Write a sequence for this structure.
């Protein structure tokens, strides 16, 4: 029998995942959508507007691609029906019900995955190899600067979820890729000390910058900077060793190594390819019933809890 996949939400990211699955797998795809009057998807997926009807198809896998603040409650309903989970990042906008969901996943032995496609970026993959083969770094600096109105040019940024803290907006969660690959490259995040706030003239009520010192296990220290008000687009990972310097540039898609000489290696990068590789990886592990799949819910939850603990106590600058 064909695997049945139920999408919750079918916005831009949901459509992207659905198209990749239709193009690469012979699965049955369905979608549950709650917005009345919303246009049907042009990728020809049977859609439901009643949740009981959606669950009546007995889906095998749920793709949680609805708004961030609905992720956990949706995933919990699915987990209690023994449905495996592919959850778009970030996990949620709060820690509410996250421990309950983790318990359900463990109790029912579900395959779960939090979708951080940047782990499939060639620069990050090769940085991971370089770090694992090199001496321990003595310091790292991660920077992600961008301009929110440019994120979705066809949409009024002030009406997007990114502008609204109550919906999970703000650079800490919107740019949580940086937390995810920081923990992947340097070890589980142990401590975050810094500040965040809203200091620009952007028409938003969510934080537009974050600056903090990070300690990863085993005792690797660094700095993480996020903002969404910069006209200078920058996304870099700088890694310092006692005898060398390594820099990964996610805009230029290259890695620079400075030892006795400087060497730059360029990589071909296609955003869609990272999503394709991610989904192929997920289904390969799904077929193996690998509960220890990379970035499973329990693994991702450790980083998410550190983020949310920081948000709850950080000095907020206005």
């Amino acid at each position: 029998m064909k695997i049945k996949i139920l999408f919750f939400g079918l916005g831009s990211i949901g459509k992207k995942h659905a198209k990749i699955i239709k193009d690469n797998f012979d699965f049955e795809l369905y979608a549950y959508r709650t917005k009345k009057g919303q246009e049907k998807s042009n990728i020809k997926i049977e859609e439901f507007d009643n949740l009981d009807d959606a669950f009546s198809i007995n889906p095998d896998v749920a793709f949680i691609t609805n708004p961030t603040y609905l992720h956990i409650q949706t995933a919990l309903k699915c987990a209690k029906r023994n449905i495996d989970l592919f959850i778009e990042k970030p996990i949620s906008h709060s820690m509410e019900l996250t421990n309950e969901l983790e318990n359900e996943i463990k109790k029912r032995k579900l395959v779960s995955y939090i979708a951080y496609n940047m782990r499939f970026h060639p620069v990050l993959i090769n940085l991971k190899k370089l770090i694992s083969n090199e001496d321990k770094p003595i310091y790292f600096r991660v920077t992600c600067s961008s301009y929110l109105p440019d994120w979705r040019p066809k949409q009024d940024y002030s009406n997007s979820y990114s502008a609204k803290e109550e919906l999970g907006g703000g650079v800490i969660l919107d740019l949580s890729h940086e937390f995810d690959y920081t923990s992947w490259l340097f070890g589980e995040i142990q401590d975050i000390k810094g500040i965040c706030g809203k200091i620009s003239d952007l028409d938003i009520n969510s934080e537009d910058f974050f600056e903090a010192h990070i300690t990863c296990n085993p005792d690797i220290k660094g700095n993480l900077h996020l903002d969404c008000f910069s006209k200078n687009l920058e996304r870099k990972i700088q890694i310092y060793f006692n005898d060398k310097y390594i820099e990964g540039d996610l805009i230029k898609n290259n890695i620079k190594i400075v030892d006795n000489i400087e060497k730059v290696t360029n990589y071909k990068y296609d955003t869609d390819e990272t999503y394709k590789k991610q989904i192929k990886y997920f289904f390969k592990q799904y077929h193996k019933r690998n509960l220890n799949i990379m970035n499973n819910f329990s693994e991702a939850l450790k980083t998410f809890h550190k983020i949310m603990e920081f948000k709850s106590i950080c000095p907020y600058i206005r």
Notes: The CA atoms of residues 136 and 241 lie 7 Å apart.
